[in-house]
């Protein structure tokens, strides 16, 4: 008989890929052990839960060790819903502002890991069961801008690729590395000031305009496609909430030092989608412009994945609103935006109910924890957005390679939405 009762919960302070402190939690069951840490964003949405309590990470660690632990010890690690419910109850606020969403998520994830470990079961199988055998496609950023890179970089936060023609995860991630390398060469050849700098997620940080960056990406993809024969499509995450100036009613373009009005911005999005065959468009507009998103979906939703990140913040109620007004056809799922695995799962269910594609995602500030790799396979999400280079990104890719290997002859790549298959 496997014993899954939680015997101990212990939190400590660790550091993320930006060198900022975050929280890591160990959960011990009689027969198992789970350790998980929380990531953090730089372009966080207004509707996310609060990451840390007023006293910061030290306070979060203290609260877990002093308050949360005693409530969770003795509970069954198999009962994820009950543990997550307890986290909400101990917190007692709408947005995890007392204990912090980071603390809640670390406890929630460590509980799932401890449960899986109690049965000596891979985490993705514990999450998804017998038929969780499909690998997601990586969606990774090659060139960075916005809040993830310096002043002279593009306004668009992330210029991304998806190797849609890959037959395995190994092939897919290799294509991403090749595009990244090729883009670096192209930038180096035309940009004399370029010293090979990279931003928060390992993407190139270069002095390029938005269109120059997209063109660089298109060229790099063309070269790699013809070298290895794997179809690669491009996408962008505008992270438009970071550009939006409420007082001025427009999008502030830091590079150009000018304000772009809403209509002009929507037209610019439509123009680049057509001109460069952009297939994935994340947060093209600011986080409360559901109407603008709907306009974009009406215009290009048949051929482009219009994805909400800050728009939805992994929040089922916001996703339901988005479905009602057809504001998107894809949703970024970032567990730390809501604070528990159960809440993230509710968001995935809500997305699917409305026919939206869930995209499991990292944050710009990451740790070595590869939980999201298991989550993507376990929840059968067709896309994982987890960057390309950097140890904290690589831990997710390498874990997916291990999962792919362990699935031997039952493995397959996930079914992509039609927008990415053309
Ligand atoms: P963040 O950005 O993790 O810095 O919030 C990632 C994204 O916008 O997708
Ligand atoms: Zn985003």
Structure overview:
The chain is α/β, with parallel strands linked by helices. It folds into 2 domains: 6-121, Enolase-like, domain 1 (2-Layer Sandwich); 134-421, Alpha-Beta Barrel (TIM Barrel). Helix content is 39%, strand content 18%. The protein has helices spanning 56-72, 80-91, 101-118, 123-128, 169-190, 210-228, 262-276, 290-300, 316-324, 341-353, 371-378, 391-406, and strands at 6-15, 21-29, 33-37, 134-135, 137-144, 158-162, 233-237, 244-245, 250-253, 258-261, 278-282, 305-308, 330-333, 357-361, 383-385, 412-413. Strands 5-6-7-11-12-13-14-15 form an 8-stranded mixed barrel, surrounded by 6 helices. Strands 1-2-3 form a 3-stranded antiparallel β-sheet. A 3-stranded antiparallel β-sheet has the order 8-9-10. The longest helix is centred in the middle third of the chain and has 22 residues, at 169-190. The model has no long low-confidence stretch (mean pLDDT 97). Bound molecules: 2-phosphoglycolic acid and zinc ion (ZN). Zinc ion (ZN) binds next to loops.
What structural category do the secondary elements indicate? alpha/beta
- State the CATH topology of the largest domain: TIM Barrel
Instruction: Let me know the CATH homologous superfamily of the largest domain.
Output: Enolase-like C-terminal domain
Number of domains: 2
- Which compounds are bound in this model? 2-phosphoglycolic acid, zinc ion
Low-confidence stretches: none
Main pleated-sheet profile: 8 strands, mixed, barrel
Shape category:
globular
Cα gyration radius (Å): 21 Å
């Amino acid at each position: 008989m496997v014993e899954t009762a939680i015997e101990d919960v212990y939190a400590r302070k660790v550091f993320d890929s930006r060198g900022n402190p975050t929280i890591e939690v160990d959960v011990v069951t009689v027969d198992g052990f789970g350790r998980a840490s929380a990531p953090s964003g730089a372009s966080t949405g207004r509707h996310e839960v609060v990451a840390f309590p007023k006293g910061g990470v030290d306070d979060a660690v203290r609260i877990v060790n002093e308050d949360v632990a005693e409530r969770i010890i003795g509970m069954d690690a198999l009962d994820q819903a009950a543990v997550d419910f307890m986290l909400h109850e101990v917190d007692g606020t709408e947005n995890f502002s007392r204990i912090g969403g980071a603390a809640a998520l670390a406890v929630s994830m460590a509980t799932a890991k401890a449960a899986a470990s109690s049965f000596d079961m891979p985490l993705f199988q514990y999450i998804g069961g017998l038929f969780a055998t499909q690998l997601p496609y990586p969606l990774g950023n090659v060139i960075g801008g916005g809040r993830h890179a310096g002043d002279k970089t593009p306004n668009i936060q992330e210029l991304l690729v998806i190797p849609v023609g890959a037959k395995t995860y190994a092939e897919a991630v290799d294509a991403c590395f090749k595009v990244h390398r090729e883009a670096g060469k192209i930038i180096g050849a035309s940009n004399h000031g370029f010293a090979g700098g990279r931003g928060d997620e390992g993407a190139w940080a270069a002095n390029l305009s938005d269109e120059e960056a997209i063109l660089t990406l298109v060229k790099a993809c063309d070269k790699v496609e013809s070298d290895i024969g794997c179809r690669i499509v491009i996408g962008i995450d505008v992270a438009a909430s970071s550009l939006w100036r409420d007082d001025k009613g427009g999008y502030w373009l830091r590079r150009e030092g000018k304000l772009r009005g809403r209509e002009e911005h929507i037209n610019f999005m439509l123009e680049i989608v057509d001109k460069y065959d952009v297939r994935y468009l994340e947060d093209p507009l600011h986080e409360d412009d559901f109407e603008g998103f709907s306009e974009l979906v009406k215009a290009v939703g048949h051929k482009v994945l219009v994805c909400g990140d800050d728009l939805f913040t992994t929040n089922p109620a916001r996703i339901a609103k988005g479905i009602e007004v057809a504001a998107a056809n894809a949703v970024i799922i970032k567990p730390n935006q809501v604070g528990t695995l159960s809440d993230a799962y509710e968001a995935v269910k809500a997305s699917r109910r409305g026919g939206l594609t869930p995209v499991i995602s990292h944050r710009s500030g990451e740790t070595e924890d590869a939980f999201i790799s298991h989550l993507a396979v376990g929840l059968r999400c067709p896309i994982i957005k987890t960057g390309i280079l950097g140890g904290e990104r690589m831990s997710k890719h390498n874990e997916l390679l291990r999962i792919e290997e362990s699935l031997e002859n039952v493995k397959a790549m996930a079914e992509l939405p039609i927008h990415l298959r053309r």
